[in-house]
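In the design runs reported in the main text, the only information available to the sequence generator was the tokenized backbone. The following block is the verbatim input for one such run; it is reproduced so that readers can re-run the procedure and compare outputs position by position.
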């Protein structure tokens, strides 16, 4: 008898692939739901332990340390649940093409942070925590969970405040590292990182702290804060960008005195001065050049009054003596009964002369900016311009030659 058997149909795998994709799409919402529930539990726990930690009435040091440890452990578990949500839920939704535009953007930002792990671990550590907290905060806002949000805000602002301070301190350490800052480009990158960090803090965290009434320094920065907000609308040119950064430095002197030391803030100011000088020399028109010049005068005054006037330790004693002379002259002008126009002229003369001494008189750009400063001093009546003149000495040389010949005879 002929052997009977089953005939197997050949498949290309497409059928099973479709089934797997369908099952994955069905399971994703369940996974999202489970992770969301876990996040909610961990979030409630971290809010509870945070309130216990900040509101404890016990004077016992041991009790405070116990509460702090409990709070920190709750934060770790909470952040782990958020990280798990990204990897297990958002990643799979993006891979299966069921994610929203916001979720795709969130995953992209997540990987932008993660790539720092190999090269800048400390920065990665702070930025990853910032990202995860910000993600949950935005999620609560988007889902209109007002009651939870009100309880969450205090913890969120306090924790983010700590992370931003840590990040700024890390950038300050980097600036002191000669290996990292082996070139002007690397230094400029760190300066930009500092300004970006300050801007994000002022935009996203400071308003929450002001609303909660937990920012005691606000009354000292209200003018700078309002001024900064004016830069958030519309497109900024290079001059506006410099002014915005200058405003951020002014705010930082009140909020981040320890995280952003004076020596680092001084380097940031000097970076802005270099940027402003470059802007003056490369302005496309006289009008824009004049606007850049006025910005320079404002920046020099801000640098000297808000920063150098608070400087206690000077590495070079002669620099301190030089600044003392500058400050005495500045106060003399400020307190004089002169007209505002004359005061402005005298300040400009003082600032330009002071800044000229700080510029290294080497290189084409340095010579050009000094030339520009001198032309301004001539306009202000602080310097005289001597016109170039010459005399034709050809006849004198010819007479001298004839006299020499006659003497030889």
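Verbatim output:
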């Amino acid at each position: 008898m002929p052997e009977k058997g089953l005939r197997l149909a050949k498949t290309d795998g497409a059928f099973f692939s479709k089934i797997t994709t369908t099952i994955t799409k069905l399971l994703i919402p369940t996974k999202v739901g489970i992770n969301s529930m876990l996040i909610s539990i961990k979030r409630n726990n971290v809010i509870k332990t945070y309130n216990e930690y900040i509101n404890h009435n016990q004077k016992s040091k041991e009790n405070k340390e116990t509460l702090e440890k409990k709070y920190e452990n709750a934060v770790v578990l909470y952040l782990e649940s958020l990280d798990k949500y990204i990897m297990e839920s958002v990643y799979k939704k993006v891979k299966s093409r069921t994610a929203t535009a916001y979720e795709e953007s969130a995953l992209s930002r997540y990987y932008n942070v993660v790539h720092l792990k190999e090269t800048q671990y400390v920065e990665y550590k702070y930025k990853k925590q910032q990202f995860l907290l910000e993600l949950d905060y935005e999620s609560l806002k988007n889902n209109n969970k007002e009651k939870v949000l009100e309880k969450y805000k205090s913890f969120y602002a306090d924790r983010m405040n700590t992370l931003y301070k840590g990040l700024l301190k890390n950038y300050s350490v980097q600036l002191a590292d000669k290996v990292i800052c082996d070139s002007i480009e690397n230094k400029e990158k760190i300066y930009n990182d500092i300004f970006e960090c300050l801007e994000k803090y002022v935009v996203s965290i400071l308003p929450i702290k002001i609303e909660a009434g937990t920012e005691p320094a606000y009354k000292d920065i209200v003018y700078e804060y309002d001024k900064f907000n004016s830069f958030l609308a519309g497109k900024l040119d290079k001059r506006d960008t410099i002014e915005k950064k200058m405003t951020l430095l002014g705010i930082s002197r009140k909020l981040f005195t320890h995280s952003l030391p004076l020596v680092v803030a001084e380097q940031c100011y000097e970076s802005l001065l270099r940027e402003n000088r470059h802007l003056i020399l490369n302005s496309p028109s006289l009008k824009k050049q004049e606007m850049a010049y006025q910005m320079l005068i404002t920046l020099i005054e801000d640098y000297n009054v808000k920063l150098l006037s608070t400087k206690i330790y000077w590495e070079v004693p002669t620099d301190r003596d030089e600044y003392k002379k500058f400050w005495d002259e500045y106060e003399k002008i400020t307190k004089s009964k002169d007209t505002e126009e004359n005061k402005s002229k005298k300040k400009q003369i003082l600032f330009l002369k002071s800044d000229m001494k700080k510029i290294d008189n080497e290189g084409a750009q340095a010579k050009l900016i000094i030339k520009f400063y001198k032309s301004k001093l001539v306009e202000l009546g602080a310097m005289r311009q001597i016109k170039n003149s010459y005399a034709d000495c050809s006849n004198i040389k010819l007479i001298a030659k004839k006299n020499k010949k006659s003497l030889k005879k």
